[in-house]
Structures are given as structure tokens and as C-alpha cells.
Amino acid sequence: MEKVKCLIIGAGPAGYTAAIYAARAGLNPLMYTGHEPGGQLMITTEVDNYPGYPEGIRGPEMMEKFKQQAERFDTEIRYEKITKVDFSGDVKKVWSETDVEIHADTVIIATGASAKWLGLESEKRLMNMGVSACAVCDGFFFKGLEVAVVGGGDTAAEEASYLSKICTKVHLIVRRDEMRASKIMQKRVMDTENIIIHWNTETDEILGESEVEGVRVYNNKTKEKTVLPVKAFFVAIGHKPNTDFLDGAMEMDDVGYLIAKPGSSKTSISGVFACGDVQDREYRQAVTAAGSGCMAALDSERYLVEKGIA
């Protein structure tokens, strides 16, 4: 059994930022990265919208710099998953996949959320070469071009609306004869001239070898196939927060996102804090994740001071 003041679970922009702040505050944080350290940024090529990088930076390179900064202040980083937790007492107990038991005075959860994908071979092959799960992140690279968005919910409607402002034409691929998006978002999409909605339509294949050159779709009623001449393909069918390991140990919404108290990182469990995409279903940006990581570390420090531990 090991005892720490601050345990950080997850290693994306939120987790690393929390580690930097916690380490500088003398909390000697221990971080468990999971099997995908760096999170969604590891599958992002160019990051052009994070302040401080005027020429842009590749996602994996940015995460390496975050990691190095956390390590500079003596954050201990372990490349394992946390598989079980017990938050019932004042001291929080967690277990790693190698069955190490850790007792922590505070826990910061920064495990993020993973984008859902269609499962096509071409989707995986052309990842970061025109296939993306974030229009706000990557849409700029396809300014003035024709693109496609797949999905029928609010996320897809928002992505299509955003892209319609910078792209010549946006094809919205909806597998049913109606959208799940809110009425106001549906109206916004339908009122936008350069958004073309393809109802009852599913993706058959994304075309191209080293870049997206089009997408072949089919009507699931008529079975007719069509090729859309797009240069980018945005998947907007939702995200899954990485909270399965918690096994219902704390308050979540109906999808599994952790619920943080407004204006803080505090969760339903005293001494447990949440930051980044694991509690943010709205913005999902590196910069907002980093900001919430700072909040979590500060909230953790204040909690420890109030308990007379720090």
C-alpha cells in the first residue's frame, strides 16, 4: 500500500496541468496515465488554436512538452490504468491494473472522453489526413473546400454550422429520416444554404490513399450509392467519457460524464475533483481542459489546507 496527498488519474491537457500546479504547490502528485497518455491530442496532427504557439504545434509534441513540464516539478508518472476505486472514506483508495493499492488524500480525475467512430478501415487509415472528430480543431485546414459531417445530434449540427462559415459546402450525413438534434439546432442547419442534408444515408467508404478524396455513401432505403466529392470527413456521433472504472462510485449524468459543481472542479465526493473532458460535454478543447486542470489542482490544495494536511 502506498500513501499520497494527491493522485491524478489521466494524462491529457487537464491531467498534466493539474500535475504542474499540484507539484508546484508541494503536493507531490502521483499520476497514472492509463494506456493512452496525452488523450485525444495524440491523434491530432496540427494544433493551431492553443495560445502560445504562433506557428502551431503537433498534438503529440504538445503533450510531450506538457509531460516534461510536469516531470520538471517532480511529478511521478506511471503508465498504467486505475481499475478500481473506493471513495467511501476520508482516505480515497484506488487499485492499479498491477494490483498496487494507493491511499490518497485527494484524487483528481482527468480521464477524458473518447470520440465514437464508425469503425471503417478507411476511417482509421485516413485519421489526421482529412478524417477528424473535431471541426473546431481541424476545420480551418479545409477552409474554402467541400466537406462532410456524419451524425444527427446536436454535436453534428454544431459542427456542420461551424464548417458552413468557412467551407464552400457541407454535406450532413444523417442515417435516419430525422435528426436527434434540438429543434433550434435543426432549424439553424436547415436554414443554412450551403449545408446539404442527406437523409436515410450511411457511410460506405471514405475514399483516398494519403488524403480524403471523397466519401461513398448509400441510401439505406433505396440502397443507391453516391460519391460526395469532399476533402474532409468529420465524425460527430458523440463521445464516451472514460468513467467505466469508477463503477458508479460518484455522481454522473445519463451518459457518464462526471458532474462538477458550477464554477469548481468539486464532485459529489468530498476530496475528489474532476477536470477536462471527463466532465465537459460542451467545449472539449485543449485550452479549456488545461484551465480546468488548474482549477482541480487549486481546489485540491485548498481542500488539503482546510483538512490540515497540506
Topology:
Elements: E1 2-9, H1 13-24, E2 30-32, E3 46-47, E4 57-58, H2 59-72, E5 76-78, E6 82-86, E7 92-96, E8 101-109, E9 113-115, H3 121-125, E10 131-132, H4 135-138, E11 146-150, H5 154-164, E12 169-173, H6 183-190, E13 195-198, E14 201-207, E15 214-219, E16 225-228, E17 232-235, E18 239-241, E19 272-274, H7 286-306
Helix pairs in contact: 1-2, 1-7, 5-6
Features:
single chain; 310 residues; alpha/beta; FAD/NAD(P)-binding domain; 2 domains; five-stranded parallel beta sheet; 7 helices; 19 strands; 24% helix; 27% strand; elongated
Largest sheet: 7 strands, mixed
Query: Which structural class do you get from the secondary structure elements?
Result: alpha/beta
- Annotation field: number of helices: 7
Which fold does the CATH topology of the largest domain refer to? FAD/NAD(P)-binding domain
Structure description:
With 310 residues, this protein is an alpha/beta fold. It has 2 domains: 2-114 and 239-306, FAD/NAD(P)-binding domain, CATH 3.50.50; 117-235, FAD/NAD(P)-binding domain (3-Layer(bba) Sandwich), CATH 3.50.50.60. The chain is 24% helix and 27% strand. The strands form 5 sheets. Strands 1, 2, 5, 6, 7, 8 and 19 form a 7-stranded mixed β-sheet that branches.
Question: Brief overview, please?
Answer:
This protein is of the alpha/beta class.
